[in-house]
Amino acid sequence: MAFEGLSEKLQGVFKGLKGKGSLTEADINAAMREVKLALLEADVNFKVVKDFVASVKEKALGEDVMASLTPGQQVIKIVNEELIDLMGGTSSKLTYSPKGFTVYMMVGLQGTGKTTTCGKLANYLKKNGKVPMLCACDIYRPAAIDQLEVVGKTVDTPVFTMRDCKEPEKIALAAIKEAEKKGCNVLIVDTAGRLQIDEELMEELAVLKKAVKPHEILLVVDALTGQDAVNAAEGFNEKLGIDGIIMTKMDGDSRGGAALSTKKVTGRPVKFVGMGEKFDALEPFHPERMASRILGMGDMLTLIEKAQEDYDEKKAIELEKKMRRNKFTLEDFLDQMGQIKKMGGIGSVLGMMPGMNNKAMKNLDMEKSEKEFVQMEAIILSMTREERENPSILNASRRRRIAAGCGQPVSKINQLVKRYEESKKMMKSMMGGRGGKMNRMFRGF
Question: pTM of the full predicted structure?
Answer without folding.
Answer: 0.68
